[in-house]
Amino acid sequence: MRVLLGLFLIWFVTNFQPPAIAQDLDVTEIVAASEAFSGAQDLTTRNALFLALTAYDGDATVESVNAYVSLLLFDGAGDDNERLFASASAARTHFEPIADVIPKQYLEARFLAAVALFNMDQDAEAMVEMAHVEGRARAFTDRIGERPDWATYLKWNADAWGMAMGAYFRSADEDHPNPSEIQAILASYGEDLASRNADAARNLDENGLPFCSGRMIQRPSMRYPFGKAAKGFFGAVILQMDLDPDGQVLNPRVVASVPTDVFEEKSLRVVGKWKFRPADRDAVGVTCRLQRTNIIQPLTFQLR
Predict the structure, then answer these.
(1) What is the CATH number of the domain that holds 277?
(2) Residue 282 maps to a domain
(3) Shared-domain flag, residues 69 and 142
């Protein structure tokens, strides 16, 4: 089984001025290396910046955080997993003491380190790490109690990567964290309040009707795409979709996928033909409804 997930690049916000970060420490070498790297982004200037950052043992500063962000953008766009793992792991360690101040940068570094670890060694610890990223991202809310877009984006992508890793381990018949272990990690971060509140808001329509109970009729069935098996592909797709008043799937769209652009077309085409069957047809429009929005449908693809 070949590992062909590919790297997933998270785009960082590079220009920011977070509060409560030390400003007066000696980061002369980091600044100089950063300027050289900005002027000519290549492996020579990249390695010089990495050395300057790892030689620095002081607290995080705006300069050091921005330098790590630039470094991860460069490494994340490449195909060297060992290099990315080294820089993302160093960034995570550097960001950790101020993770509450820069949660986005911290979680993205942790995410990239987990991706690189898996692509590099197919280490089951990467799946554990990804669960921590997902749990922390889905539980994160800002000062007004809402989950920002970056946290939602990271939550779904961490979820997709975790599913894809599980698909690989099952296909290769290798030991890996079982679902109860992953759920325990997710639960340790508390409830997914943003999703729970959104679900509660959608529970009743304007007529006071709840969703009908029933099941999705998955016809045609989802089959492993022809030709992908020979290439060793495995992965996951998370779709969001709506149901019309008759229970027909509408507007399926990709929330996250690993690897990108491999299983998406097939997933959208097949799921778009599915239909929800109510447990009691006579109840539709009387005591319950079929029309729904923003339903999440996870799909995994693996070799058996």
Answers:
(1) 3.30.2420.10
(2) yes
(3) yes
Secondary structure, 3-state, the chain? CCCCCCCCCCCCCCCCCCCCCECCCCCHHHHHHHHHHHHCCCHHHHHHHHHHHHHCCCCCEHHHHHHHHHHHHHHHCCCCHHHHHHHHHHHHHHHHHHCCCCHHHHHHHHHHHHHHHHHHHCCCHHHHHHHHHHHHHHHCCCCCCCCCHHHHHHHHHHHHHHHHHHHHHHHCCCCCCCHHHHHHHHHCCCCCHHHHHHHHHHCCCCCCCCECCEEEECCCCCCCCCCCHHHCCCEEEEEEEEECCCCEEEEEEEEEEECCCCCHHHHHHHHCCCEEEECCHHHECCCEECCEEEEEEEEEECCC
pTM, full prediction: 0.88
Confidence of residue 143 (pLDDT cuts 50, 70, 90): confident
Distance CA 298, CA 56 (A): 43
Is-contact 287 208, C-beta < 8 A? no
Q: Is residue 257 part of a domain?
A: yes
| Residue 233 domain boundaries | 206-301
Closest to 162 measured CA to CA, from 152, 173, 154: 154
Confidence of residue 228 (pLDDT cuts 50, 70, 90): low
Residues 187 and 286 in one domain: no
Average pLDDT of the segment spanning 81-98: 97
Q: Is the peptide bond before 177 cis (omega within 30 degrees of 0)?
A: no
Nearest by Cα to 277 from 211, 221, 217, 209:
217
**pLDDT confidence of residue 20:** 47
Q: Are residues 210 and 282 in the same domain?
A: yes
